[in-house]
Amino acid sequence: MVSFTSLALFAASALAGPVARQIAIPENWNWQIENWEAGCSRSGCYYLFNITVPSIEGEILGVKARCSGSEQGYDNSFTVPSVYESCQMLVGANNNAAAKLSLRPHDGTGYGPQEIIVSFLFSGYEDRPAYNFSGSHKATYNQFVTPPINFTITPTQVFGVA
Predict the structure, then answer these.
(1) Neighbouring residues of 151: CB distance < 8 A, sequence distance ≥ 6
(2) Largest CA distance in the chain
(3) Which residues pair with 158 in a beta bridge?
(4) Residue 28, C-beta contacts closer than 8 angstroms, at least 6 positions apart
(5) CA geometry: angle 66, 41, 84, nearest 5 deg
(6) What are residue 74's DSSP bridge partners?
(7) Are 122 and 132 contacting, i.e. CB atoms less than 8 angstroms apart?
């Protein structure tokens, strides 16, 4: 039988453990998407673009990367969410970027996934934990129709990574 005292000590020790610090999304931190191209075929939609995540002086070291990937779930009628695909780092070390297409709507209103979702991993160092920032933008399917386009993504979510 477990006593009340044992439970209280266990709870107190759990509270005394290390707690990850939360970090705020820097103000006006916009990621540049350049040369965006996306298209769709019978096997699903795909994308290709360059991303620049700017550095925040004294806080975050940015990256430049080339991202490409495709929608997943063809064998399941696109009901399976895509997973993040790592981008090829061009400039920057330790931190990383990844991207994926959102899940395709199945309400008859859409053509392919509606958004591109981009993730930036700010690697941990010594006592600082790693953080993942993410944001999204409307997916435009412009391949073979218009020249590549440029736009910005502003991160809207951040969470600590163990």
Answers:
(1) 33, 36, 137
(2) 71
(3) 133
(4) none
(5) 40
(6) none
(7) yes
Which pLDDT belongs to residue 15?
Answer: 41
Triad 149, 152, 157: Cα angle to 5°: 140
Report d(CA 127, CA 53) in Å as an integer. Answer: 23
pTM: 0.80
* Total residues found in the chain within this entry: 162
Quick: pLDDT tens for 83-116. Answer: 999 999 999 878 999 999 998 877 666 577 889 9
How many Å from the N-terminal Cα to the C-terminal Cα in the chain? 34
Structure tokens at 28: 């006006």
Name the CATH topology of 28-161.
AOC barrel-like (2.40.350)
DSSP codes of every residue in 2-41: --HHHHHHHHHHHHTS--PPP-PPPTT--EEEEEEEEEEE
How many whole angstroms from its chain centre is CA 82? 12
Instruction: Return phi, psi of residue 45, to 5°.
Output: -100, 160
All structural domains of the chain with their residue ranges? 28-161
In tens, the pLDDT along 23-82 reads: 889 999 999 999 999 998 888 899 999 999 999 988 889 999 999 999 887 777 777 788
Query: ∠4-10-11 over CA atoms, to 5°?
Result: 90
